[in-house]
Amino acid sequence: MPIYTYKYSEQYMGIPIMEILKDGEPFWEDLPGAKTHFRFGIEKAYMLLNCMPKIKEFNESAGGIGINVSQYRNENNIYNFQCNICRLYWNGHPYLKIEDCKTINFGLLKSESIIELEDKIKMFCDIYTSRFDRERYLT
Fold it and tell me: What percent of the chain lies above the pLDDT cut of 90?
């Protein structure tokens, strides 16, 4: 079983970046638009936290659930996001696509890492979110 860890990378255009590592190394999945590192900033971190129930559902079913939700807002969550989320396939493998102003694509491997590091993603948001952004992202 892989061991997922994280680090805070250099900032990109003034935005702090969190990177998730697998067994201490960068990793990626063969998906449309995939890069060689799994990194994201504050806005995408909040998108992940908002959609966590759907990410867990996707992961627990090994990608087999029929997520076809055009507008998703986690009503039991404190995050002020209404995301588009859907399950797609690439080369026969399921993946989730979450969109707000930005887009995140990830498959089972990344969903597993997101779930395992959920508390660390929350901590990343707490550390780096300014007062202005708290009003924007939190209800």
Answer: 24
